[in-house]
Design brief:
Helix content is about 40%, strand content about 15%. With about 325 residues, it is an alpha/beta fold. A hairpin with a 4-residue loop joins β1 (about 30) and β2. α2 (about 40-45) packs across α3, α9 (about 175-190) crosses α10 (about 200-220) and α10 (about 200-220) packs across α11 (about 245-250). The model is unreliable at about 1-10 (pLDDT under 50).
């Protein structure tokens, strides 16, 4: 009779071969381990991380469903009270957020904070994340810079920051390699229509926003009832070597590599005869070291964002 796993005392573990299976919607890839894993295994590997940053494409509702699923599952797994810090809410909205978090139905929370008026996709798509926070009694934190600071920052640089916020963020000069990368990305993100002379100012705003989100995370994690933080933000904000995690390490020099984890929702390309590898996807966001886990999803239909794009005088 042929031998079996039971006969030999070994365990047969199904393996998805990264060399033969291209990334596709529903798959999760652990870049550190170099292997595909299941959702429950990702949650196990994330357990007890102090900071978990969950990146997204803002207009993909699948990403927000997955973010909510991860916040809920990880909190139930390790019991950490991680505050939920949002890119989409700004610091000057915190009091309003706190009041409405208690007083209004969850479906009305976004409208109460002018969510869609401020340019974000449907609050309905993001509400599951807030529901996961409410179900687990997690603190909601508005982490981004106030909208009315952006133009002054572009015009006047860090001198435009209020004194208390400037002291809190303690912004250093942007390292040259980081500035160079930001300049390229911002130019491409604006369809190469921004004057070259404006790129450093826009890059500084990106740098300051990342610092604001990181500061909100560390401040929330030091609260009496919290011992960590999630971040809900676009994929460009969660990159380990260049974005919010860079500032987390600046604010807390005692952090080690195991204290921070980045999970990025990645839209898989349509099937083709020459599909991109996991490294190809990682390099779209900087480099392989910027992401710990890639969670691949479907994309959504979009028009060309550069069509008819213009900038004011």
């Amino acid at each position: 009779m042929p031998s079996s796993a039971q006969d030999t005392g070994t365990t047969i573990k199904p393996v998805l071969d990264v060399n033969t299976l291209p990334p596709a919607p529903g798959l999760i890839f652990d870049l550190r381990a170099g292997e595909y894993i299941m959702f429950d295994e990702m949650v196990r590997r994330l357990a007890d991380r102090k900071y978990v940053l969950i990146g997204e494409k803002h207009d993909n509702p699948i990403h927000h469903h997955h973010q909510a699923q991860l916040v809920d599952a990880l909190t139930n797994r390790d019991g950490r009270n991680r505050a939920v810090v949002w890119e989409m809410f700004t610091r000057d909205q915190q009091v309003t957020l706190d009041q409405n978090w208690i007083d209004v139905p969850l479906s009305d929370l976004g409208p109460a904070l002018a969510w869609e008026d401020r340019g974000w996709p449907s609050w309905h798509d993001y509400a599951p994340i807030a529901q996961a926070a409410k179900d687990n009694d997690l603190l909601m934190i508005a982490g981004n810079l106030p909208d009315d600071l952006l133009r002054p920052l572009i015009s006047n640089g860090v001198a435009a920051l209020p004194d208390d916020l400037a002291q809190q963020l303690a912004l250093p000069d942007i390292p040259q390699d980081m500035l160079d990368q930001f300049n390229v990305e911002i130019a491409e993100g604006h369809c190469n229509m921004l004057p070259q002379s404006m790129l450093p100012a826009f890059s500084m705003v990106q740098f300051a926003r990342d610092a604001s989100l990181a500061s909100a995370m560390t401040e929330a994690a030091d609260g009496n009832d919290n011992d960590g933080a999630f971040l809900i933000a676009g994929n460009m904000h969660v990159r380990t070597t260049i974005a919010v995690p860079w500032h987390l390490r600046r604010f807390d020099a005692a952090l080690n590599a195991e204290d921070i984890a980045v999970v990025s929702m990645i839209e898989a390309d349509d099937p083709s005869d020459n599909p991109p590898s996991v490294d190809d996807y990682a390099n779209r966001y900087g480099n392989r070291d910027d992401i710990d886990f890639m969670w691949f999803t479907n994309d959504i239909a979009r028009g060309d964002p550069c069509t008819d794009l213009t900038f004011g005088q």
